[in-house]
Structures are given as C-alpha cells and as structure tokens.
Amino acid sequence: MTGSFGLFQSSTSATSVGDTHSITANYGHIGSDGYRPHGKSIKNFYNINGEFKLNSNQKITLLATHSNSLEQVSGQISYDDYYNGIDNGNFAYIRRGAKTKFVTSRVGIGHLWKITPNFKNNTTIFYTGTTGERIAAGANETSSFSNYGLRSVFEFNKEWEHFRSQTEFGVEIQQSQSTITNYRYKSVKITEEPVLRPLYDGSYFNNTNNQSNYFAVEKITYKPWDLMFLAGVSINQLNYKRKDLLALPGLFVVNGKDLYNKDLSFDKKFSAVASPHFALQKTWNNQIFNLSYSEGYNAPTSVTAFITGLNVTNDNLVAERAKMWDFSIQGLIDDTSIDYQFSLFSINIKDKLTQLGGRMSNPEQTPYTYWANTGEQKNKGLEMSIGYSYQPKNLFISRIQPFVSYTYNDFKYSTYFKENGDKANVVGVPKTKVSIGLDFDTQIGLYWQNTYNYMGSVYTDFTNTNKVKSFGLLNSKIGYKHSFNQWDLDVFVAGNNLTSQINYTFLFYGNSINDSDKDNQYNNAAIYTDVNPGSSKAYFFTGFNLKYNF
Fold first, then answer.
1. Which of 33-37, 110-114, 295-299 is predicted least confidently?
2. Is 14 exposed, middle or buried (0-12, 13-18, 19+ CB in 10 A)?
3. Which distant-in-sequence residues (6+ apart) come within 8 Å of 261 by Cβ?
4. How far is CA 481 from CA 28, 399, 453, in A?
5. In a 3-state reduction of DSSP, which class is residue 421?
6. In this model, does residue 512 exceed pLDDT 80?
7. How far apart (Å, rounded) are the C-alpha atoms in residues 294 and 321?
C-alpha cells in the first residue's frame, strides 16, 4: 500500500494446515515521512502463531512476535497555530532530535488438556522483553523492560435436567522488571545548543513489580427460559520495589560534597483485595438482555507512590475502587436484517487517583507534580448502534449497509474539584461521539465504503476554562474484489479527512496542560503548547491484497 506523506505498507502471510498442526507466519512493514515536520516513522512486525496436536486430548499452542519501531516526535504546538492550520512542529523537540524507539519480543507457549469430557485446563507461560529509547524536549531516556508469568484456567461443564453449569477457576502470576535511565535537559534559549544536565540531576532506577490474581466464575443456565446467571470473584495482590542505582556511597562526592545526596529507593505492598462480578443474561426472540454489576481495583504504582520533587514516599495513597452497573440489549429486530445494540452504564469511582501540582517552599518556588486520591468520580453514559443489510435482487448493487453509532458521556468529578471551586466535568472526555457509515457492494466485485466520525468538544483543565473544539472526519474507500482459480485479489483506493478538517491526535490534560519550553519558536512562556495536530488536509493511499490458496 502506498499513499500520501511517503506512505509504504506491506504485509506477507503464509499458512500451513495439516492433520496435526496449523501454523501461520506474518511479516508487516510500515514506513512514512509523516504529515508533520520531523514526523518520519518506520515499523516492522514479525509473528508466528501455531497449534500442534499431541493426541486427541492435548494440544500445544505457540505465539511468538518481534517488532521494532522508530518514530520521530514533532512535539506540541500552540492553540492559535492549531486553529489556524499552522504546523511547524515544536522547535524544542525538533532541535533535540526527539524520537521514540522500541524493540519488543514476545513469546507464549500454551497447553490445552481435555482431562475428561467435562473437565479441561488451559495453561500458558509468557514472556515479553522491550528495550527503548525516548528523547523529548525535557528528557533523554533509555529503558529495558521484561515481564514473565503464567496463567492457568480450569473449566468444568455439567448438565442435569433443566440446568447447564460452567465453572471456571484459575490463577495468573507475573513479575516485571525494568531498568530506566533518565537524563534531564537544561533550560536554554533558542539561540543556545541543547545541553544535558549532569548525571546526578537525572535518575537511574531498577523496578521490580509482582502481581498475582486468583479468580473463580460460575455460570448457571436454566435452559427452558434460556436464562443465565453469572457470579464471579477475583482476588488481586500487588507489591513493588524500586532501587535507586545512583544512590551509591561516594559515587558523586566532589571536594567532600555529595552532589546527589539522596536515595529514591522504596518498596510498597498492598493487601489482597477481592472484587466481585455478577451478571444476568436472557435470550428472547433473537434479543439478548444483559444486566451486570462488577467492582474494580487499581492500586498506586511505583511512579504514583513517590513524589520525586520532594524526595518522599506518598504513603497516604490508597487504591482506587470502582463499582459499575451495566444494562444492554442487542440483537435483530424481528426477522429483518436490522441489528442493533443499546447499553447504559454507571461507574462510581472512589478515591480516584489524579495527578496534581504544587510548588516547593524554596525561594524559586520550584514546581513539582504528585498523585492524590481526589475523592469520587461518577461516570454515566449510554452507547447505541444500529445497522441494516439490504440485499436487492437482480440489481447491479448486491448489498447496501448503512450503520450509525452514538455515545453520550456524562463524566463528573463529584467531590474534590467541586469542593475546591472547580467545575465538575472530567477532562479529556467528550459529551458525544457519533459514527455514520454507508457501504455498497456490487455483483461484479466493486465496493464503496464510507464513514464519518464526529468527536465532541473536550475540556483540558480541571477548572473547565480551556475547551477544545469538536471535529468530524470523513473517510472513503473504493475497491474491487475478485477470485480466480486459487487466487483472491483486492485492489483499493482510499482517502481520509476528505473535507480537510482541523483535528488533533493528542492533548495535554489536567495537571499536564500549559506545557511550555523556553527554546520553542514561540519564545513566550505565556503561550502554551498543548496540542498534537492531525493532518488538516485530505490524504490518500492505494494498495492491493493478493492471496493464494494452496
């Protein structure tokens, strides 16, 4: 596939299937000059997915992937430039050669065992390893990350008289380790070359995280009513440890003075927490009704549980908890080809973890960030969609498929920010999102697909004073599909943002807004650079898919 901004994308896949095996190998490549200055990217993906039959009751599964990616980072621009369609990037990023580079390998080996006709087990061991390099306006960082663990699930099925039972229970245990080196850039003027601060102004951490999850789920179905009741519980436990590798005695002692003079090592352990889940599901005339209640748990991490600016542990933090109700209906209307889905949800989050800001009590009043439990947050909303598949007879057009989806969000801070005089809307969440589509298929293989996606306006700050405008994107794709002998061919041309709308791909939210660097092109600390824009002009690409069936 090729297109605007120097896009080139390719994908190659091969599959072999036999009596005792099935294996697929894939290779993918994406390269682009990007629609922004200093916006080049290149990505390569490799994966192998296989299943091997040992006997009539046992199988071995394999999933192995490797990827490497390099993306240049243009940085954020001002709101004035964003609304005027001006994108020169952010000089503070471009001058430093900002980028993200990751090399990741994953492997998982599973064993499926049908112990008895009604009792089976699925056990998987997995490993992920990633090395990374990140350069931004304020930091130069390298990292090495590994994660490994085991997940084992037992399933027992039983039927008697009018009932059917499915019981699942299992465990997931994993440990992750990371080593992260972070060097900070000095604050310089645009006429000065970017310079890193001394090593002792940076950080060098080794992190170890241990997490375990034990769970059990019971599903009981009353077959005459096609009514299913689900009850489940999960027990989660988390602990982590961080070691400061720069806090070695004498490492930064110069003329009898320790230039580092701190130790940011710490560890924390959270007690096991049980989270329940219940659901009631009824099927009636091609309609599925579902009512569910669940509770969630999110513990502070090694990042949120430490205030680096003050060099103290954030011991008062507690895990945030959530309670969620959800009601949904989905299915087909009578015997038509109209399908729909409708759901209502309500999430009440207690002790919400939020990043805030403060200033030190020194003469410079140095700013710093920290995490706090900011009380309750209530998220309510609805999601709905409807689609129709019309297949006319004896016409050039063989299928017409219109569809529309709508999301309404009412996310509110209910305590902390209200009590501090701030308005209540949660940052970064639009009130409405709409998607509309219309697809056509023809008897000869031509097709035409169209979508329009609308994103409502959002607030970016807790005081709800900065509101970023809504936008809508129109995309279209025209193609031709044909099968001959053992070949399947798909050739297409597509365009995105056909009406050339101003839009964004990233915004700073909450405590992170009002970002500014002295050596960006604005040269004004009062001009904040908070927006990563999307392409404000229409762009196009073309490609083909070719498949051979052995």
1. 295-299
2. exposed
3. none
4. 22, 14, 26
5. coil
6. no
7. 11
Q: Any residues with CB less than 8 A from the CB of 257 and at least 6 apart, and which?
A: none
SS3 for 55-90 is ECCEEEEEEEEEEEEEEECCCCEEHHHHHCCCCCCC
CA distances from 189 to 95, 125, 396, 518 (A): 12, 51, 65, 6
- pTM of structure: 0.89
Give the C-alpha separation, 141 to 110, whole Å.
35
**pLDDT, tens digit, 9 for 90 and up, residues 262-291:** 888 888 888 899 999 999 999 998 899 999
Q: Which residues pair with 356 in a beta bridge?
A: 370
Q: Is the pLDDT of residue 417 over 80?
A: no
Q: How far apart are CA 118 and CA 96, in angstroms?
A: 61
Token couple for 143:
């990292």
Amino acid identity at 533: P
Higher-pLDDT residue of 108, 202: 108
The separation between the first and the last C-alpha atoms of the chain, rounded to the nearest angstrom, is: 24
Contact 273, 235 (CB under 8 A): yes
358-388 pLDDT, tens digit per residue, is 777 766 566 677 888 988 999 999 999 999 9
In the predicted model, what is the mean pLDDT of residues 179-205?
A: 89
- What is the rounded average pLDDT of the residues 167-189? 93
Residue pLDDT, tens place only, 128-168 = 999 999 999 888 999 999 999 999 999 999 998 999 999 99
Is the CB of residue 207 less than 8 Å from the CB of residue 177? yes
Question: Would you give the distance in Å from CA 510 to the centre of its chain?
Answer: 19
Indicate the SS3 state at residue 107: strand
Rg (CA), the chain: 27
Q: What residues does 369 pair with on adjacent strands? A: 357
Closest CA to 546 of 479, 490, 473: 490
What whole-number distance in Å separates Cα of residue 13 and Cα of residue 154? 33
Going by C-beta distance under 8 Å and a sequence separation of 6 or more, which residues neighbour residue 364? none
At 185 the pLDDT is 87
Tokens standing for 479? 């193609």
16 class by beta-carbon count within 10 Å (0-12 exposed, 13-18 middle, 19+ buried): exposed
